[in-house]
Amino acid sequence: MTPLMENAFAAIRERHGSQSIVRVEEMLETRKQSRHPLQKGAKWIMPGISQQPWHDPYGHPELNPVVHALEANHASIKSELETAWSARRNAFSDYEHYLTRQQDWQALYLFRDGAPVAESAGSVPTAFKVLQEQAVDTEKICPLLECHFSTLLPGAEIAPHCDLWNFSINLHLAVDIPDGCGITVAGETRSWDEGKCLLFDYSFEHEAWNHGTRPRTCLLVDLWHPDTTVPERAALVVLITEIRKLMGDA
Fold this sequence. Notes:
Blueprint: H1 3-16, H2 22-27, E1 54-55, H3 64-72, H4 74-87, E2 93-96, E3 101-112, E4 115-116, H5 125-136, E5 147-152, E6 157-161, E7 168-176, E8 181-185, E9 188-190, E10 197-200, E11 206-210, E12 216-224, H6 230-247
Antiparallel strand pairs: 1-10, 2-3, 3-4, 3-5, 5-12, 6-11, 7-10, 7-12, 8-9, 8-11
């Protein structure tokens, strides 16, 4: 713990109560971490978070407005994405996952580095507006992560891996889904239903593929896990931001 972390944690405890960030503090004590075997590759596992790989996208009242708004606007989101893909391909880039970079995995970012990507507002205005109103303004998005259109080119495969932690959760809006695509999380395989959302805990081992003949695109939104609290989220932002600075990643 650096002095900045200690001071920030003390301020959060003073405001929200002495027990308000106990789970975050326990997470820092690796000997107290309890994790599912299929979360072994994750860096941080905060105790007390549901060990449930797949979630009902309509099962969390906090997240329902995001899910319903994305699904209600799917037609416009898909149309604008198709225009951007054909006319503004230079706005897409190889997706840089923390483990790898893939040319056959393309991304158009709407939120990154703790803020909306303003340049994307003109390319995909409907998705940008929904994200801003339903996830950014409401502070449901995890500012430590991102939102992007994720396009897997034909033949692309994302190898099995765990993401960094369990205190955020990954929402997928199925924007454009050809045959031959799928995703496996903790050994359970599902397919995307175009216009609908999937929700899963990506601290569990997962993989995805496009064995179809045209690109597969989902809109991915990294949201706070609904099992986390407001003070915990504040502490986690301080913690991870400071760690990234110390590691030279910020």
